[in-house]
Predict the structure of tRNA-specific 2-thiouridylase MnmA.
Amino acid sequence: MTTVPAAPILPPSPSPVAGERVLCAMSGGVDSSVTAALLKDQGYQVVGAMMRFWPDDKRVDTFDSCCSPDAAYEARRVAEQVGVPFYLLDYREQFQRHIVGPFLDEYARGRTPNPCVNCNTKVKFDELVKKARMLGCRYVATGHYVKRVENARGEVEFWRGDDPRKDQTYFLWGTPRDALPYILFPVGELEKPQVREIAAEKGLLTARKPESQNICFVPGKVQDYVAEQLPQATGQIREIATGEVVGEHLGTQFYTLGQKKGLGLFQSHRVRHVVHLDPATNTVWVGDYADCLWTGLRAEGANYLLDLAELPRELDVQVRYRTAPVRARVTQADEHGFSLEFDEPQFAVAPGQSAVLYAGPRLLGGGLIADHVRDLPAHA
């Protein structure tokens, strides 16, 4: 990998100004390409960089749409078009330790992980921010659809991007609070069509590049990948209300809360949903729709982007990326986690996913959803 000479670590200024040095994370996609171009136009000293995640023995159909050798080539070409230096930084070991390993560990625990949250938290907005400061860059810039807002006290806040279809604040709740002043989001106030239009006007080769959709390191379907990596173990499917055995399964890792298809129950005419996974006893518990309704949640591993004392008692919480936030009341919160009560029960809140907290458009933080403590049938 190309090495970059180190420069003094610099503190952030209250507001970014032209002329300052910025490390721009480039993935080979249109959003980060336009980010680099906009920063250059605004007079920043831009250094383009891509984080290498793919291993030497990269499998077919993995790391293809982003973070791939081809994407690295495209990112370097865009950097040449924009007129900024470009470096490929080796983060393979960190990616395996922080992303791939925990992804499989969570499935083994009967939970549903979101590796993109971990990637942003542990790698992009922790490791990369540290690297930028080592290289003498005051800021890191990315192509996320997030708004950087300075409040009346001069503190940096993250707000939802102006394009509601592309807002990515959900993935950034774990950003270390002390890193917020160092991060820029040049496309946060744009909508996707505008970004593509800018790329086309500038002749950037990524202007028409399609979106990346899948988990980058997973070839094909997630279930198939998990089946390859984790041992299958036949177990029982039980009815949550009675403890009755109503089917068999090949492993709790193949199920998620709320699932009703592909259960293979003995009484196939009855609609049942997965309501609880217990890897310790290798049991999948099913029940009615009502058994999947959560009146609240407990989150662990919390991260707050404001002082805990300022956390509002009433707020919005988003429990999946593609769902609308709902109103909730904070019943307990400390540095480790928090508990919420929903205004309206929510269906199939999945342990391992993120509970992300908002006050209107402002991102307040979040945590990982913990499982319910259920009263299982005594004769189970």
Remarks:
- The chain has six helices and 17 strands.
- The CA atoms of residues 38 and 266 lie 59 Å apart.
- Residues 1-10 have pLDDT under 50 and may be disordered.
